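Worked Example 4.2. Read the sequence first, then its structure tokens.
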Amino acid sequence: MLLNPRYYGPRIVGGKEADIKSHPYQVSLQRNGHFCGGSILAPTFIMTAAHCTNRQNASRIQVRVGSSYRSGDGGHMHQVAEIIQHPDYVASTTDYDYSILKLATPIEFNENAQPVLLPEDKEPEVVGSDSVVSGWGNTRNPTESSRKLRAVTVQIVDRDVCDNAYKEYYGVTERMLCAGNFEEGGKDSCQGDSGGPLVTKTADGKDKLIGVVSWGKSCAEPHYPGVYSKVSTVRSWIKEHAAV
């Protein structure tokens, strides 16, 4: 059982296959194949995790948009022109795990590719409420393919409870939020889901990006929920660099 960023790897644990039309903001970061997820912010801007882009060369990364699949036909590939990593990112603790990718060409929006809504500055999450995480990361089940997008519903966990669970590790800072099936486990993001979206529904049924898949103890273990970078804490930074 490892404590690590939800990085590289072939799937969402405990979830079901999903169509990109239900998660049109979801993208796949590609470098010799899928390695991380991300979310569409605007025609030329993608939100992902800093641990996905740390020490990476923008010219080697492409973004697949508008496809339910991480490889093969469908969707469109866009070259990354610039990596805008949060200046306060700390690799040793995964704090400020945010990165914005600027694309060389704009995304043409359609039913398979749409920007996700963002929370207000410092907007609080509701403990116990449902949220959905999606991606092409490890399912930990050899009978479940990672080729097609998968999604799972998880609950927001109180930060103090989560911090106590992880007190022997990095600890959970104010830039982080936790979500999972706390008592039973079995539902979580995993390796390969890094940088992908954690969303909640607005009152009118639209998806709002509240978290970026960041790290955790193994995947889907009881009492160790997934840890996400909290988007509302850097809302002004996103606005400054992505104009949204």
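Now turn to a second chain, presented in exactly the same format:
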Amino acid sequence: MTDCGRCVRPIPKTGKNGPKVDCAECKLSFHGKFVDLTPDDIQYYVENNTVWRCEACAKVRRKSMALESSMTSTITNEDVFNLVSELRKDLRGVEAGLGKSINTAFEELKETKGLVSKQGEEMSALLELVNKLSTENAALRNKVAMLESRMDDIEQYSRRDTIEIHGIPADRGEQIVEVVKTVGRALDLTIDENMISACHRLRNREGSGKPPGIIVKMTRRMDAEAVLQKRRVKRNLNTHDIGLTASPAMPIYINESLSPGRRRLLNAAREKKSEKHYTYLWIRGGKILMRKAEGEPVKVVTSLADLDKL
């Protein structure tokens, strides 16, 4: 009984490791199982009297096959069988490596899928948070707009007894109260000092080319309204009416005093009036009113949103 050249154990004629096979080069015997040969493979060698070489000898043989092929005119069945066996062995190695790579790729794909799923959950949570914050932001913006509107209404209400006079040239050393009294006389309205709570020139705007206006706070609201009413009656009030005849007549405007917010809204309304071809735009009681044409309904403008609806 000979020993296996691979496992160095005795080789019985039959056994679970298969029959033995002998290497034609090194003369060692091997269990068929340990050299990847089935009993049918070994039977083929015996019946066809072909030569089998172990892996070590086969490698040496392959190196010299080119030289042997050039020295012989034909390729034997043994060469073909050995080549097929080697290719099968190489294929098994490739299959094993490919299987390992596939398993690794599958695990990585599974891990990536888990990460993507987790990121999807986090993204959903973030989107939910963004939607919530957007809703809160919209609510806060509406609240701020409402508060700004209320503050503007309060400030405008505080100006209900205040008027502005524009178009009167400034004179150094002038007495503003006397100028206001003169305007009253031109409107056929007596204005005395008791009717005036405070008055002063507004700051001059650089580059405007217009004289700074005069702001007058009356002691009573009805006095302010009386001045405005008289100005509506006398539409052509100008500087000649108050004795300034040394220069060409310039129109004098008397308007309600507007809060900064209401003034910005009025400027926007002027632009919209031109854009939408409205005919009338005026102020009454601190409110901005617009009418497209005679006989058309009056539009009350309280916000920029009202202008967008025109």
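Notes for the reader: The helical segments are 39-48, 55-71, 77-158, 176-186, 221-233, 260-275, 304-308. The mean pLDDT is 86.
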